[in-house]
Amino acid sequence: MALVVIGGVAAGLSAAARARRLEPSLEIVVLEKGPVISYGACGLPYFVEGRVKDAAGLIVYTPERFRQERKIDVRTGAHVVSISHPRREVVLESGAHVAYEKLVIATGARCDTSGITGCDQDHVFTLHTLDDAERMRRFIRERRPKRAVVVGGGYIGVEAADALRRNGLQVTLYERSQNLLLREDPFFTDAVRKQLERHGVEVRTGINITAIEPCDMAVVAAGFKPNIQLAADAGVPVGRTGAIQTDEHMETGIRGIFAAGDCAEVTHRVTGRPTWIPLGTTANKTGRVAGACAAGARERFPGIVGTSIVGIFGMAFATTGFSAVQARAEGFDPVTSRIEGSTRARYYNPSKTTVELIADRGSRRLIGANIIGDDTAGGRINVVAAALQARMRVDEFEQLDLSYSPPFSPVWDPLLIAAQQLKL
Amino acid sequence: MALVVIGGVAAGLSAAARARRLEPSLEIVVLEKGPVISYGACGLPYFVEGRVKDAAGLIVYTPERFRQERKIDVRTGAHVVSISHPRREVVLESGAHVAYEKLVIATGARCDTSGITGCDQDHVFTLHTLDDAERMRRFIRERRPKRAVVVGGGYIGVEAADALRRNGLQVTLYERSQNLLLREDPFFTDAVRKQLERHGVEVRTGINITAIEPCDMAVVAAGFKPNIQLAADAGVPVGRTGAIQTDEHMETGIRGIFAAGDCAEVTHRVTGRPTWIPLGTTANKTGRVAGACAAGARERFPGIVGTSIVGIFGMAFATTGFSAVQARAEGFDPVTSRIEGSTRARYYNPSKTTVELIADRGSRRLIGANIIGDDTAGGRINVVAAALQARMRVDEFEQLDLSYSPPFSPVWDPLLIAAQQLKL
Questions:
Q1: By C-alpha distance, which of A187, A170, A129, A166 is closest to A312?
Q2: Is A300 close to B381, i.e. CB distance below 8 A?
Q3: What are phi and psi of B79, to 5 degrees?
Q4: Are B355 and B329 in contact, with CB atoms under 8 Å apart?
Q5: Percentage of chain B lying above the pLDDT 70 cut
Q6: Predicted local distance difference test score (pLDDT) of residue B347
């Protein structure tokens, strides 16, 4: 009997690889419906940009390598159409049956284009698969579009706008809500907007695009949906977020069936409640835990705190936890402080960085941060992420023993200054 | 009655400024024996290097500014020779008495040249005060030494070697122990040595210099001692580390007398025991808490975890907590993992970074890290510092929700890879 994994990108392959490491003799089968496995989906905008020259550069492993080096039976073009848990088997589109003892569902998510007509035209793209990216790049090279419309101001939309602009296109980005990068925060959104506009991208928020008209080209990145139909049809419980419910071992409501990656819910450690924030890092981590537990180990995935970072024309926009607006919606009583600090001593050509911290008045816990600046924003948001995971109070956080030396930081790190200014 | 602060550099001025902010009407007197206050002592090597052109560039505040903007009576050239707590007064060298209600001792530390003869020669320098640095720079400019000997392989010694080498001198660095940067760790020390040698600094460890002979020039940075005599003479208890004992409010064993900065002990949060690691960041933080508590507030300083970073010819060497050797000496059962990782996605010109994590087998807690690499080492060591402060276990740490985007990090951060490889 075998461990069967449905999906051969980040979560699925992490699960398979981890199970193999823990159980050298286990039979492991990965069923991927697409033609390739293990590509770095987060790299797609950089392939469109042209920085990644060759699509092969985004593929980390080939099925052959998984077969030979790890003895994992990876099958591409293997589209699972149903799961029969009573029989412990999955059925492929080809009609073939594959038996399992333990199952990991890593079916990912998809671009949601349902509210927009005209998405099937040749000049309209999503940016979710390697095939999407290759098609888009070919189109740009061959058809030389002058203008592009990007629908959606989330990560993919903003990264696509950046990539297209760097290819010389005139870009207009439309976003349905008033927020960019999914952050309900007027200041942060405004900073993102200004950075896009400074580099020639026209930004229009509060506009709901319902149809793609004829134009040079359009990229639709207006929403993301977890692929849960296969699981739901098999009776696997789906949570309020719309993704598959999991426990801390990434096991679903049906024993023996695990879920990981963009199709699965995880715990938000700031609230303790289920959340769905599809990101590659979480896909890898949950895949790893699902694979370990499916192979019989008892590892746990404690959850996420909602950390992300995006580069926009060379500037970093990083967030973790909740913005003040989001925190209020989650039932917190948020207090914020926002400062502009220096990244280094003043004789080391410092750049400016904006640090906003959000704390909860009642518990005095830190519950979120927005950081904008140079490359150092990643390290700073990660410090806050660690503090959120540890449920650190502000009085603890403001005494963190952070490193200091003039080439690398100011003596009072902007994180500590922002913490001192939280009026709890 | 007044708050009197002895010492006008980092800790003393932080204490005075914080007390003023909390108590607008308090009389505050700062007594500094030197001619200037508030200079960035950590910037002295960069003044020697020539990057900081003007000594004035290292002075953050003048006494006049403190007097005018904060109504703090800052007196330079005011050398306190004794404290009479029964009379609540300090006595200056001039014979003047200054009465206090609360006292903050921020007398700092000094270079310990006691075991080395010949340190009083014109070509021999320490690098501790602005005056030291100015004298050294003038000497280099006027006498054009060709070779320099640096005695001591701690932070100051290594930074001085870097600064002198950049001025074109042939530099030989001697260190008494087998360790560089005070880190008892053969791998880390070896990496520091290689980086120094790669840039032309000759490094000789295990050599105890007891006399400075005639030579072009010598810098003695062979040890540091807390200035505790004044406090000890007044009956203030001194701890085993040789520095002034303090509680979490930075109050000494005598009520009403506080101590902060390089003369004071603090709690090491990894062991829970007193420690003495004189650094500017800790001086500022402890000064702030001492000032607040002396002014009647009840703030606390929970302690440090021993974080530091040094740049050596453009490469960062960062540590926090304990090395394996140090951990064993502290009673832990250390387990280590060391990996070489990438700082970014491979299509973003990543550089290599070495991450070593140290955990305790019994408690499974993370207890230290050494990180070598580019500018991102600071952010990564700070994440570990936050984890140490939170007493995080390895299984928690390896699931940290760290930010990821190709321009800023690889999908598996080197910190998480190193944590996964800890064999507990």
A1: A166
A2: no
A3: -95, 110
A4: no
A5: 100
A6: 87
The DSSP result for A230-258, as a single string, is HHHHTT--B-TTSSBP--TTSB-SSTTEE
Instruction: Indicate the residue type of B280.
Output: G
CA-CA distance, A86 to B327, in Å (whole number)? 53
CB A135 within 8 A of CB A125: yes
Q: How many contacts, defined by CB atoms under 8 Å, are there between A and B?
A: 212
Which of A28, A39, A40, A34 minimizes the C-alpha distance to A70?
A: A28
Partners of B316 on chain A (C-beta within 8 Å) are 407-408
Split at pLDDT 50, 70, 90, the class of B61 is confident
> Residues A186-214: pLDDT tens digits?
999 999 999 999 999 999 999 999 999 99
Q: pLDDT > 90: what percent of chain B?
A: 92
pLDDT number for residue B1: 66
Give the pLDDT score at B68: 94
* Closest by Cα among A358, A350, A365, A356 to A409: A350
User: CB of B357 within 8 A of CB of B422?
Assistant: yes
Q: Do A227 and A158 form a contact (C-beta atoms < 8 A)?
A: no
Per-residue confidence (pLDDT) for residue A1, from 0 to 100? 66
Tokens of A288: 């790893």
A82 shares contact with chain B (CB less than 8 Å):
no
The pLDDT value recorded for residue B37 is: 85
Check residue B151 and report its DSSP letter: E
CB B350 within 8 A of CB B410: yes
Q: Are A308 and A382 spatial neighbours (Cβ–Cβ below 8 Å)? A: no
Residue A7: C-alpha distances to residues A293, B370, B404 (Å): 17, 37, 22
pLDDT band with cut points at 50, 70 and 90 for residue B359: very high
B 390-419 residues inside an 8 A Cβ radius of A: 390, 392, 395-396, 399-409, 411-413
Q: CA–CA separation, B358 vs B394, rounded Å?
A: 10
Q: Does B365 touch chain A (CB under 8 A)?
A: no
Contact A311 B407 (CB under 8 A): yes
Distance from C-alpha of A409 to C-alpha of A205, rounded to nearest angstrom: 36
Longest dimension (CA), chain B: 69
Whether the per-residue pLDDT at B59 is higher than 90: the answer is: no
Compute the distance between CA of residue A70 and CA of residue A152 in angstroms, rounded to an integer: 40
Two tokens at B371?
Answer: 């990180």
pLDDT at A341: 96
The residue-averaged pLDDT of A242-256 equals 98
A135 CB-side CA count, 13 A: 15
CB contact under 8 A, A401 and B310: no
How far is Cα B259 from Cα B15, in angstroms, rounded to an integer?
A: 10
Among B305, B311, B408, beta carbon nearest to A401: B305
Judging contacts by C-beta atoms under 8 Å, the chain A residues touching residue B387 are 386, 390
Give all strands (DSSP E) within A18-61, no chain letters: 27-31
- Check pLDDT > 80 for residue B40: no
Q: What is the mean pLDDT of chain A?
A: 96
List CB contacts of A150: < 8 A, sequence separation 6 or more: A157, A160, A161, A164, A171, A172, A173, A174, A218, A219, A221
Summarize pLDDT for A396-412 with one digit per residue, the tens.
999 999 999 999 999 99
User: Taking CB atoms and an 8 Å limit, are A401 and B320 in contact across chains?
Assistant: yes
Contact between chains at A390 and B386 (C-beta distance less than 8 A)? yes
Phi and psi angles of residue B201, each rounded to the nearest 5 degrees, phi first: -90, 125
Asked if A395 lies within 8 A of B300 by C-beta distance, the reply is yes
- Candidates B354, B360, B299, B40; CA nearest to B187 is B354
Which B residues, 1 through 40, put their C-beta within 8 Å of a C-beta on chain A?
Answer: 10, 40
DSSP-based three-state secondary structure for B105: strand
